[in-house]
Amino acid sequence: MRPNLPLKKRFFQAEGNLNELFTFAFVCRIELELQHYIIMSKTILVTGASRGIGFQTALKLAENGHTVIATARSEKKLNALSEQAESGSIIPVPADLTILSDIGRLAEAAEAENGLDGLINNAGLVHREAFMETDIEDFQKLMDVNVYGIVRLIQALKPQLKKGSHIVNMSSMSGYLGSLKFPGLSAYGAAKAAVIGLSEVLSAEFSEDEISVNCLAIGAVQTEMLEEAFPGFEAPVSPQQMGDYLANFVLTGHQFYNGKVLPVALNDPS
Ligand SMILES: NC(=O)c1ccc[n+]([C@@H]2O[C@H](COP(=O)([O-])OP(=O)(O)OC[C@H]3O[C@@H](n4cnc5c(N)ncnc54)[C@H](OP(=O)(O)O)[C@@H]3O)[C@@H](O)[C@H]2O)c1
Cα separation of 46 and 61, whole Å? Predict the structure, then answer.
């Protein structure tokens, strides 16, 4: 067998010899799989990948053969994610999004993978307390992780975002204009509304670099965050379901949307 000959020529050379034909079919299959892998496999950075929605998103992307740079503060949980993934590739990079030197490590990891096709800014913190009792430090903490974490990361990763790449920022119905609001989420709602504003402006700024930016304002998903904020509440969506949706959205959503804030919720947002 000479794998570098054109397919038709190789087929006629192999004709008549069953062993040769089987080998030929096997080589073709490997070549096709390699081509599929090279063309289709993407590199996506997912923040907040140690649990909840981020964990499931990273797992789904890896399952589909993609490379995931998975980050959060907990190294142990990121390693558990990497062990759980049976295909694709998970590269765990522990980082705190409030620490600039940690962000630098994420940029290095992205550069080592020859850049990113997608970035999912999913990490987040919640705080539920009556507005009059909420300290300004709590507001600042939520802004620091939920908003400035995204700002720091995008500023550091911009050179690694390829033409045609897609940034997905995770907001919440708590920050979505006109949606039903819940008492106690003033700091969270304000931070998530800021993520929406930031996303819209970035999509305008990055369009000349052919980088799309969309924002998802999601409704309740059954995660530890939800349980912390609303103990006993039963959400209609599981983290696996939202992870599947996000994994697909980061790869395909920018074919249909740019600069959009999409409510991903089963309840009526108005
Ligand atoms: N669940 C819901 O009902 C719901 C609804 C609306 C919007 N959302 C949004 O969806 C996203 C995911 O939510 P989730 O429910 O999956 O939350 P989660 O289970 O609490 O996970 C949050 C993730 O963020 C990471 N994180 C927190 N602080 C960080 C920091 N300083 N640096 C780096 N990573 C940090 C956590 O990892 P470490 O602790 O290991 O760092 C964790 O992996 C969040 O942005 C959330 O606001 C969720």
Answer: 10
